[in-house]
Amino acid sequence: MSSTVYAKGSDIYAAFIRGAERKYNRSTDDYTVYETHLAKSYDYWLKCAGSREQMRAIKRKTKGSWRNAYLPLNLALKHHHIAGEPVEEHARVYLASDPFAVVDIPMPEWKKLEKSCPKQK
């Protein structure tokens, strides 16, 4: 199991929503929070792109949206409880640009993101 994957923003968002639907993330039912986190991550990585030319190329390729960008997502841990009560195993993840904002997602979603991760050369 990899600890970092690169996944499309839209796929990460869908995984975040599925975790929220299962009540893994008790802190919010406001899904726009996830959109904000993903938008900030996209902006952060754009700034890290280097030159203006590279930034423009990324914006063109992603159509200026985090939904089309491949963003790094890290696995912090696997666990099987919510507020001390046992539940199915799920993954605690965070966007690499913000390690203090964690989100729990279903384990099958993590595995799907791992599978869809572009292969490094």
Q: What's the domain count?
A: 1
Q: Shape, please?
A: elongated
Mean pLDDT over all positions: 90
Give a short account of the largest sheet.
4 strands, antiparallel
Counting H and I runs of at least 4 residues, what is the number of helices? 4
Q: Which regions have little confidence, pLDDT < 50, spanning 5+ residues?
A: none
Calculate Rg over CA atoms.
15 Å
Measured as a percent range, the helix fraction is 40-55%
The strand count comes to 4
**Which percent band covers the strand fraction?**
25-35%
Distance between the termini: 18 Å
SSE arrangement:
Blueprint: E1 4-8, H1 9-21, H2 32-47, H3 52-62, E2 70-82, E3 85-95, E4 102-106, H4 107-116
Antiparallel strand pairs: 1-2, 2-3, 3-4
Summarize the structure.
With 121 residues, the protein is α+β, with helices and mostly antiparallel strands. It contains four helices and four strands. The chain has one domain (4-116).
Write up what this structure looks like:
There is one protein chain. The chain is an alpha+beta fold and 121 residues long. The chain has one domain. It has 4 helices and 4 strands. A 4-stranded antiparallel beta sheet has the order 1-2-3-4, sandwiched between helices. A hairpin with a 6-residue loop joins strand 3 and strand 4. The longest helix is centred in the first third of the chain and has 16 residues. The mean pLDDT is 90.
